[in-house]
Design a protein that fits this description.
binds ligand AR6, 7 strands, 5 helices, 7-stranded mixed sheet, alpha/beta, globular
Length: 176
């Protein structure tokens, strides 16, 4: 499914983000940028050691912020590493921090002149954010950004598995 927002298009696809050919893919990292499981593990495995080398130099990234490295051996110029919140019931500003992770990633991509970016579903694996709520926040934040700024032409949400895809589809239909 896709929708047009201003001059940009938001795509929902089911798949593996390490196969993307956008200018940048976004990693759901941890604040130490230490690598881990899930999408983080997949990106470092497929991208090779150059990505971790840069992560070590950067040293860390606070929750809700984003940093950028090379794409290593991936078919992308850059990996943007952002840190989503750990879900602890919803009263610890998780929604604000999740929105910030998306927005800071987009701002960083814009500042580097990137035209296309692919996101995974941040915080909805190991960090336990309920998928339906996270999908609404992700899509609202991205579409709001594209209504204001038109430099990023393509945003792809690469959802891992049918359930994630369907939740995002439901969320996207509810906001258009
Ligand atoms: N492509 C796209 N999405 C994927 C892929 C993939 N190859 N693999 C998993 N996902 P998670 P988080 C989905 O746990 O919740 C790590 O250890 C997955 O199904 O990767 O933000 C980090 O180091 C889920 O929907 O990230 C942190 O410590 C989504 O990606 C911590 O986990 C996010 O799941 C971050 O937790």
């Amino acid at each position: 499914m896709d929708i047009k927002v201003n001059e940009s298009i938001v795509f929902l696809v089911e798949g593996d983000i390490t196969k993307e050919k956008t200018d940048a893919i976004v990693n759901a990292a941890n604040s130490r940028l230490a690598g881990g499981g899930g999408v983080d593990g997949a990106i470092h495995r497929a991208g090779g050691p150059a990505i971790m080398e840069e992560c070590r130099k950067i040293g860390g990234c606070p929750t809700g912020k984003a940093v950028i490295t090379t794409g290593g051996k991936l078919d992308v110029k850059h990996v943007i590493h952002t840190v989503g919140p750990i879900y602890r019931g919803g009263m610890k500003n998780e929604a604000g921090l999740l929105a910030s992770a998306y927005k800071e990633s987009l701002k960083l991509a814009s500042s580097k002149g990137l035209k296309s970016i692919a996101f995974p579903s941040i915080s909805t694996g190991a960090y336990g954010y309920p998928l339906a709520e996270a999908a609404n926040i992700a899509l609202k934040t991205v579409t709001d950004y594209l209504k204001e700024k038109t430099d990023i032409k393509t945003v792809r949400f690469v959802l891992f598995g049918r359930q994630a895809y369907e939740e995002y589809e439901k969320a996207l239909k509810s906001i258009v």
